[in-house]
Amino acid sequence: MSFSYETKIELCSLPIQRTCCARAEAYGILLYCNTFSAREIRIITASPDFAQRLPKLFRRAFNLGFDVLPGEGAGTKQSFIINDREKIISIFEAFGAEAEATLSHHVNFAVIEEDCCKAAFIRGAFLAGGSVTDPEKGYHLELATTHSSVSRETYALIQEV
């Protein structure tokens, strides 16, 4: 088991307490997941712990569920999909954006003002698109996203925390 995998297990064991932090974590996940668009949200994971956390997190953050959940025996990759138009609109609105008007994603820092929410956002980004090497081998953290502006803005946030 890799250090990165173990780190994700540990992060997934943290309780989902405050709604603001649940939203911040979900925001990090959405900005670093496979698809976050006006037509579809698709989160794919190989982590069983992350797969168990996602439905609870989205219920707490937005009071909604996924439209498509992984089936029994889904294999190593599990997909969580939201394609209901109203759900997508409400998620975009929770982050101060309009689904149809969003051409590129940016981090809305107003959503993550509190220190606890900043940590939750980074946790979500790491769970969806991150990896880290064992500190015994040298420090190296990666957060992969297709949105260059989100990457720069997350970097600035990490430097601030």
Describe the secondary structure blueprint for this structure.
Elements lengths: L2 H10 L6 H14 L2 E2 L4 E5 L2 H15 L15 E5 L2 H10 L20 H15 E3 L8 E3 L4 H13 L1
Antiparallel strand pairs: 1-2, 2-3, 4-5
Helix pairs in contact: 2-3, 2-5
State the gist of this model.
The chain is mainly α.
Describe what this molecule looks like in 3D:
The longest helix is centred in the middle third of the chain and has 15 residues. The chain contains six helices and five strands; from the N terminus they run ααββαβααββα. The protein is mostly helical and 161 residues long. Strands 1-2-3 form a three-stranded antiparallel β-sheet. Strands 4-5 form a two-stranded antiparallel ribbon. It is globular and about 45 Å long. The model has no long low-confidence stretch (mean pLDDT 92). Strand 4 and strand 5 form a beta hairpin.
Q: Secondary-structure element sequence?
A: HHEEHEHHEEH
Low-confidence stretches: none
Helix share, percent: 40-55%
- Calculate Rg over CA atoms: 15 Å
Strand order of the largest sheet: 1-2-3
Shape: globular
Number of strands: 5
Mean pLDDT: 92
What does the largest sheet look like? Answer: 3 strands, antiparallel
- Strand portion: 5-15%
Distance N to C terminus: 29 Å
- Oligomerization: single chain
Q: Helix- and strand-based class?
A: mainly alpha
Count of separate DSSP helical elements: 6
